[in-house]
Write a structure and sequence with these properties.
Enzyme class: transferase
Number of strands: 21
EC number: 2.4.99.28
Strand content: 5-15%
Protein name: peptidoglycan glycosyltransferase
Strand order of the largest sheet: 7-6-19-18-17
Subcellular location: Membrane
Helix content: 25-40%
Structural class: alpha+beta
Keywords: Carboxypeptidase, Cell shape, Cell wall biogenesis/degradation, Glycosyltransferase, Hydrolase, Membrane, Multifunctional enzyme, Peptidoglycan synthesis, Protease, Transferase, Transmembrane, Transmembrane helix
Radius of gyration: 31 Å
Number of helices: 24
């Protein structure tokens, strides 16, 4: 009987090893295990001044499969994690972690029979980061054979991981990839410590550590909404409290903490940031009376969270494999990014956006097209989905923000700011053209005044004979024609994203060069060696005289009496602070009021803001366009530090009646636009 039993165990072991090897080969897991440290090491991201912006995981790069969505923030070494957390985690999850080779044979029968509960820390690391999506974990498939195959594969690979990296490195990789999926798609001890308690991992107390470790079996229970019934919320928090106490008892029973430490931890009335809990009693009798969501809770992601897919996309476009990249320097300015994010997510002066109203905003440097800040929202919530990055993907009719491009095209065809046209009833084909005011001045106005007052009649008169040239300019700038809209392109029927509009306006302050916006300034590999990046893609769009005249046209739209955005003029305080640099701007609103825009430019930056419905189905609330909310957003440009505070007029420019125009006899001509 003994020999038969041993033979059965031997056969089962050989069979399990064979099944595990087959699982490892079939999923390609062996290669991923060999490079696991590099795969789990995120890309460090800093701004152009070296300020940290967060990290980017490889979790969804290429064909990588990972149960946990891409995270928001940092990995930390074991020295950056409190001893209390490490003790609680190892004691609760795998108390013999430092004495086995990745597989705890004493717990193996339980793991095989239950499909859970017997995994070691090493096996959990494999399940969450290598085998997810292949068997029964993070898939819609269930069944004992799938579970057995996954466990067998873990059994085979765990000793390889331990041998390859050592136990300390395995523990470091594990604590930085723990799937607190329910906590705002968080992952790792840094994210959990910051999101739940607002502290650094090194500062986690014993009570906080036990609370976090207790959440691991079901982190989704941590989440609570304003509509959760009080009794449900209280029961959920009591469950978390019980799990915390179980973890503390395990620590005490193994002699890892003393009685005094235990009593102090169990008697601490924790207040996670998301929750507001009321306690009664004291010491070991401390109990939860009731709990609910904290109405004051906010949780702003790391800046790079919303841009991670865009960074990956740009890396691949540059011919770089994101898995080879260890660090990137972005053209982004961390302070500008934070300020723009606050505005777009409704924390700025303009207040929160109504439900269903999205906003996209972009700021670019006119010197080369580097993206300074980029923010998008959907009803006040940021998104890391590149398809919901409205600043890049919301192709909406640009409305009257097209007029400065139209007039710049005309300046290269013999017109100037002082060319005059009658503001009167005008037609484009069979369509009657009206101004937004519904009235006509009934007199001749200059292009300078027409732009400041946003007169549609003058735009159509200027644009109709130059429609071919305007279309070529819009094509070169990356705008897209709306074939269903047969109105004049001079009125903004072409579609573009805010980032493209900002780049087009940057050309006015950039000497006529149109530079494709980009995020990457420097890239190094995982060994710290620099990787090559393509040069900024800049093409001449305007003659430099035309570009300066268009810049002056835009500043007049802010500074003259006919201005439609007088609130953008510098205040007395800004003048005293040296922030009165020239700023030009143009607003725009579509006829159906589904979109409201503003684009602006200074000697150093260009910015575009769009607010509306990405699907084009509903109108923007009347207050948003009547108060010109989008143009109030571009006031941020005056708050940014400027190295260039003015533009020098190029040779060939003179001033007539305050307007910059070409000298007599000079007829500037724009270069032929180059399509992207």
């Amino acid at each position: 009987m003994l020999r038969a039993a041993l033979a059965w165990v031997g056969a089962a072991t050989v069979g399990m090893i064979a099944l595990g090897v087959a699982g490892a080969v079939g999923t390609g897991a062996l290669g991923r295990v060999w490079n696991l440290r590099a795969e789990l090491r995120p890309i460090e991201v800093v701004d152009r001044r070296g300020e940290p912006l967060g990290v980017i995981d490889h979790c969804r790069a290429g064909n990588a499969v990972n149960a946990v969505p891409c995270r928001e923030s940092l990995s930390v070494p074991l020295t950056g994690v409190s001893e209390a957390f490490l003790l609680a985690y190892v004691a609760k999850e795998d108390v013999r972690f430092f004495s086995h080779v990745g597989v705890d044979l004493g717990r193996l029968p339980r793991a095989l029979l239950s499909g859970a509960g017997g995994s070691t820390i090493t096996m959990q690391l494999l399940k969450n980061n290598v085998l997810a999506g292949h068997f029964d974990y993070d898939t819609d498939r269930r069944g004992p054979l799938l579970t057995l195959t996954r466990k067998a594969t873990e059994f085979v690979l765990a000793p390889v991981v331990t041998w390859r990296y050592g136990r300390r490195e395995v523990l470091a990789m594990s604590v930085n990839s723990l799937p607190w999926i329910g906590i705002g798609q968080r992952k790792g001890v840094y994210d959990a410590a910051r999101a739940v308690f607002g502290v650094e991992p090194a500062d986690l107390t014993l009570a906080q550590s036990a609370f976090l470790v207790g959440l691991l079996p079901a982190p989704g229970r941590y989440l609570v909404t304003d509509t959760t019934p009080p009794e449900t919320a209280t029961a959920r928090f009591r469950w978390m409290r019980r799990q915390q106490l179980v973890t503390l008892e395990i620590l005490r029973s193994h002699g890892l903490i003393g009685q005094g430490e235990y009593l102090e931890a169990v008697s601490t009335p924790l207040q996670p940031r998301l929750w507001r809990a009321e306690y009664a009693g004291s010491g070991t009798d401390l109990r939860v009376v009731q709990a609910a969501r904290n109405p004051a809770y906010t949780n702003e992601p790391e800046p790079v969270w919303a841009m991670q897919e865009l960074v990956r996309r740009e890396l691949r476009a540059a011919g770089l494999d994101p898995k080879r990249v260890g660090r990137v320097v972005l053209t982004v300015d961390a302070a500008a990014q934070a300020a723009l994010t606050r505005r777009v997510t409704g924390e700025g002066a303009t207040g929160p956006r109504p439900t269903g109203v999205a906003e996209g905003a972009a700021i670019v440097d006119v010197r080369g097209g580097g993206i300074v800040a980029l923010a998008s929202s959907t009803g006040g919530n940021q998104s890391s989905d590149a398809g919901r990055q409205w600043a890049v993907s919301a192709l909406r009719p640009v409305a009257s923000t097209v007029k400065p491009l139209l007039y710049a095209a005309a300046f290269g065809d013999g017109l100037t700011q002082l060319s005059a046209f009658p503001d009167q009833a005008t037609r484009y084909g069979s369509q009657a053209i009206r101004n937004s005011s519904g009235t006509f001045l009934g007199r001749a106005v200059t292009v300078r005044e027409a732009n400041a007052s946003s007169l549609n009649t003058v735009a159509v008169q200027v644009g109709t004979p130059r429609e071919k040239a305007l279309r070529a300019v819009l094509d070169a700038a990356g705008y897209q024609e709306d074939a269903s809209n047969r109105s004049s392109p001079s009125l903004g029927t072409y579609r573009a994203a805010p980032l493209d509009v900002a780049a087009a306006y940057a050309s006015f302050a950039g000497g006529g060069l149109l530079c494709r916006p980009h995020l990457l300034a420097e890239v190094t590999d995982t060994g710290g060696r620099p990787l090559p990046l393509p040069r900024p893609d800049c093409q001449p769009l305007w003659d430099e005289v035309v570009a300066f005249e268009a810049f002056d046209l835009l500043t007049a739209a802010v500074s003259t009496d006919a201005s439609h955005v007088p609130f953008l003029r510098p205040s007395l305080l800004q003048r005293l602070q040296g922030r009165s640099m020239p700023l030009g701007a143009k607003s725009g609103t579509t006829d159906d009021v589904n979109d409201t825009w503003c684009a602006a430019v200074t000697p150093q930056y260009a910015m575009a803001v769009w607010i509306g419905d990405p699907e084009g189905r509903q109108s923007v609330p009347v207050t948003l366009y009547r108060e010109q909310t989008a143009c109030r957003e571009v006031a941020l440009l005056r708050e940014l530090p400027h190295e260039r505070r003015s533009l020098d007029a190029p040779p060939g420019i003179t001033r007539v009646a305050g307007a910059a125009v070409p000298i007599s006899g000079l007829n500037p001509r724009n270069p032929a636009p180059v399509a992207p």
